[in-house]
From TrEMBL:
Family of this protein: Belongs to the mitochondrion-specific ribosomal protein mL54 family.
GO cellular component term, pick one: mitochondrial large ribosomal subunit
Name used for this protein in its record: Large ribosomal subunit protein mL54
Record localization: Mitochondrion
Chain spans, region Disordered: 29-49
Keyword tRNA-binding: no
Main localization (coarse): mitochondrion
Tagged with keyword Zinc: no
Keywords per UniProt: Mitochondrion, Ribonucleoprotein, Ribosomal protein, Transit peptide
């Protein structure tokens, strides 16, 4: 089909220009020329070297400031932070272990966790049974 259109235009456009038009990608937004070795992205995607000194890095939380005019917060001694902060990464008991224990002897937090996880497991089981039907 394209050949027929080329034959129709043959008298108006030189053959060299037709070959250039057919072989060219015209849907590219970059203008057709890319730098050697680049895969797109910004002008410099490489990580920048840090200009902060070791002393500043060890005394401040770098990058924690979210305000335009603010400064990065200083690192405080451990005694200045609340106690609950040190337990955030503690491992919590999974549902299988909670099921093995006596429910009446569980502390309130573990009992609350057991009820939540058990409800979640029963909902997932009911959903899988309904999905098979």
């Amino acid at each position: 089909m394209a050949i027929n259109h080329i034959r129709c235009l043959g008298g108006f456009i030189p053959i060299k220009e037709i070959g250039g038009l057919l072989g060219r990608r015209t849907f590219s937004a970059g203008g057709g020329k890319a730098k050697k070795g680049s895969k797109g992205g910004g002008a410099s995607d490489a990580p920048k070297a840090s200009i902060l000194t070791k002393e500043v890095k060890s005394t401040t939380v770098v990058g924690a400031n979210i305000l335009k005019d603010g400064a990065d917060p200083k690192i405080l001694p451990d005694s200045e932070y609340p106690d609950w902060l040190w337990h955030l990464l503690d491992k919590r008991t999974p549902l299988s272990e909670l099921r093995r224990k006596n429910i009446e002897t569980l502390p309130y937090e573990d009992l609350k966790r057991f009820v939540k996880l058990d409800n979640r497991a029963s909902i997932k089981e009911n959903n899988s049974i309904k999905a098979k039907n």
